Amino acid sequence: MLILMIILALFWVVALFDAYIGLRRIPRLETLASKPSNEKISVIMAAKNEENAIEKSITSLMKQTYPNLELIIVNDRSTDDTGLIANRYATYENVKVHHVETLPDDWLGKNHALYQGYTIATGDYLIFTDADIEYKPNMIEKTFSLLLQEKASHVTVAPDLEAKGMLLKGFIAYFLFGFGFFKRPWTANNDTSRKGGMGVGAFQLLSKEVYELVGTHKAMANRPDDDLYLGQQVKQNGHKQRLVTGLKHLKVEWYPTLRNAIKGLEKNTFAGLHYSWLFALFAITGTLISQVLPFLVFFVFEGITKWISLLVIVLIYALHSLTTKKLTTYSLPIVILFPLQALLFTFTISRAVLLTYYQGGITWRGTFYPLSSLKKQKHL
């Protein structure tokens, strides 16, 4: 057990150092300057059954200070009043509303909706976004200024993930912690390598030319993680991208409750593991060994093993605090719940994998997508 604790200590030292350097390379949008520009940007919003959120999102986009915006609202087979709300804005000169009635085979609804928006977009630049996002008025102006100043082809923004209650905030913070050291999102800002890359579904700004060069959403038609994949494709094809945090400019309630969060991750957890039982087993056992076991060892063992396990725990808390402070607006005391968060996330992974396998696919926004179809997509 002592050897295992030493190995874990070394692992977390490396992970902490990597994150410390990487997170410092992610700028905050509020610190960046804006410069006037007038290139046409098409904002493409996919919406399905968003009657409770879409009007607030549209209103925030209509208040943008950027002077040359085209807003394309794609109503994706909604069964509530989403389409009716969208139609109220169709009379505006810079707004287009498109209604999707049927979903072709081998497409996920959101991906198809975003692609349909692209087909009627007239801007040289595109923004892909969701229908539950709220924008500060200068959000697009600042991100487009960044894209031009950095001579980048793609800018993606991490939003403020609003949440109610300590348990839900802790769950989201833990997700970001795990995602951070697993996917290393800061690689988006490393111009010396084509590895990695990042895309956040809340906000992706890129040139239409680059979007077409990476294959549009046709190249990721059946991927639940289309946002991440799009960013990675931009990076791997040699185009410059930037990831910034927009905690004061962009916000979304990711999930209203912890139950919704656990259920919501059904759709992309197995996809993130490449639909592989081996990867799933590795993720579950790896989480338990690297993040839960040190706490048990600390309370059960004595001597040097106990103190090395304490070092591991301190390193974990340091990394968790670093990630939480950079990527959220949550108060740091939520990291105290780390062991519970790790166990809960292990349950979430196990549940998602078993349900996907048992059901033969995933259900997302009321549509069932068979596993055989999902597996057709290329994995990174």
From TrEMBL:
Domain Glycosyltransferase 2-like: 42-161
Gene Ontology cellular component list: plasma membrane
Official protein name in the record: 4,4'-diaponeurosporenoate glycosyltransferase
Organism: Pontibacillus yanchengensis Y32
Protein family per UniProt: Belongs to the glycosyltransferase 2 family. CrtQ subfamily.
Predominant cellular place of this UniProt entry's protein: membrane
Any one GO molecular-function label of the UniProt entry: glycosyltransferase activity
Pathway of action: Carotenoid biosynthesis; staphyloxanthin biosynthesis; staphyloxanthin from farnesyl diphosphate: step 4/5
InterPro entries from the UniProt entry: Glyco_trans_2-like, Nucleotide-diphossugar_trans
Record's keyword annotation contains Aminoacyl-tRNA synthetase: no
Chain segments annotated as transmembrane: 277-300, 307-324, 330-349
Record key words, sorted: Carotenoid biosynthesis, Cell membrane, Glycosyltransferase, Membrane, Transferase, Transmembrane, Transmembrane helix
Cellular localisation: Cell membrane
Keyword Transferase recorded: yes
A biological process term (GO) from this entry: carotenoid biosynthetic process
CDD domains given in the database record: Glyco_tranf_GTA_type (cd00761)
Free-text function comment from the UniProt entry: Catalyzes the glycosylation of 4,4'-diaponeurosporenoate, i.e. the esterification of glucose at the C1'' position with the carboxyl group of 4,4'-diaponeurosporenic acid, to form glycosyl-4,4'-diaponeurosporenoate. This is a step in the biosynthesis of staphyloxanthin, an orange pigment present in most staphylococci strains.
Highest taxon in the source lineage: Bacteria
